[in-house]
Every structure is written in structure tokens, then in C-alpha cells.
Amino acid sequence: MKRILFALLAGLFSLAGATLAHAEDDLARIKSAGTIKIGTEGTYAPFSYHDASGLTGFDVEIGRAIAQRLGVKPEFVEGKWDGLIAGLDVRRYDAVINQVGINDTRKAKYDFSTPYIASQAVLIVRDNNTAIKSFDDLKGKRSANTLTSNFGKLAQKYGAEVVPVQGFNDAIELLLSGRVDATINDNLSFLDFKKHKPDARVKAVASDKSAEYSESGVLMRKGNPELVAAVNKALADIKADGTYKKISVKYFGMDLSAQ
């Protein structure tokens, strides 16, 4: 009887230990491995995209700066937006840095860092479109968006038919070809696009700066308080030492660190 009781207690302690180890945090494992795996699209300029040097962009450089402050190397794992967050669930990576908007639905399932950038949703149409002047005018129109993004949900909220795309560039291509009437997208992405293609026949006609669509954070699995705290400290440090300013000026021509 004592042996059975001892075996049961040993099993319970073992289970408790495993649970505590799992709940302990991903931070210790990341530091032990010397690498933090970061999920990102790689097709979303100017945040995460490829140029002649390889993977680059505002979010990519923020990820590298965070990794440096954690004392580890970044390893970027690319994936399409509609499956990007799900990759966190199956532990393909430790965090997602890809303009993931902070909202209550996501906060119920995941942990976010403090916001590291704020923008606004803009309604983009062809420059000869005079019928769409506000979000209300989207009702019954076709908007190119990634289905699970905040922008896609905003388009649906206003009664648009969402035509699924993989990212900003695909949305603009469909808009320019006349296959959709509009796209709701990130203002900073739109400004970057116009900077590189000033003659592109598109315009922004309205904006929505509600918190649900404007603030983005580093997305992590629930139950990792040490990792969240470490990422938040890293973000605070790169703003304090001027690294964030340097990165934002490089990609947007302005200092966004005061946001």
C-alpha cells in the first residue's frame, strides 16, 4: 500500500514539475538555445520584405534589435498572413513580429508586448473613383484584403465583399487592374508605396485611427510573463538609446519613437 501511495505521489510531483517547467516561460529556453524564432510574412513592405540584401524591413529590424537586447540571435520564419498567427500555436516560432494589430479577440488567446508602432487604416481607391469617399460607401463594393486581418474585418464591418489576397502588393495590383473597388490597408504601407511609385493611380480617401486598427505589438503565446517582460524592456531600451529612431527614420523618414 505504501509503495502504491509513494508511486502516486511521485507521479503527481513529476506532473507538477512538468507543468511548472512548461509554465516557467519560453525565455529560458530561448536563451538556452541562443536563438529566438520570429514569424513574419516577408512580403509586406516596408515592414517585412525582400530586397537585394535578403529579408529586411521595419519589423525585421525591430526583431533583430529585440534579439540583440535578449542576448540571442534572431531566426526569421516566413509564412503567409492567414496562417502566421496559427504558426505560433504549433510552436513554429516564439513570437510574431508582423504588424499584428492589438485587439481584444487576440488578447484573449495570446500575449502582446507594449505597442511598438501605431498607424491607421486608410481606405484606398483608384484616383478616378468619385463614388467611394468614406468607409460607409464600401457597402456592396469589393475590397481586397487578407481575410483574418483587422483591415479585412473593417471592410466586412462596412458591408464590403472581401476579395482575399496574400498582402498589400496583391491588394494594390487588384485595385489598379479594376478587379476590386478598394482596399483598406495600413497608412504607413501606403505612404511607402507612393514614395516608391508616386505616379501610381491610387489615392487614400478616408482613415480610421481607432485603437483596434492602429496599434501593433509583438505577439507571443499565453503564459510567458518573463518573455513578455524581457521583450517590453528591449523595446523600451531601443527607444531610449536611439535605435528605434534610426530604424523608423530609415523606413518612414520620421521619428516614430514618441508614439
From TrEMBL:
Transmembrane segments: none annotated. Residues 1-23 form the signal peptide. It comes from the Bacteria. It holds the Pfam family SBP_bac_3. It is found in: Cell envelope. CDD domains: PBP2_Ngo0372_TcyA (cd13711). Residues 35-255 form the Solute-binding protein family 3/N-terminal domain. Keywords: Signal. The keyword Zinc does not apply. PANTHER family: ABC TRANSPORTER EXTRACELLULAR-BINDING PROTEIN YCKB-RELATED, MEMBRANE-BOUND LYTIC MUREIN TRANSGLYCOSYLASE F. This is Amino acid ABC transporter substrate-binding protein.
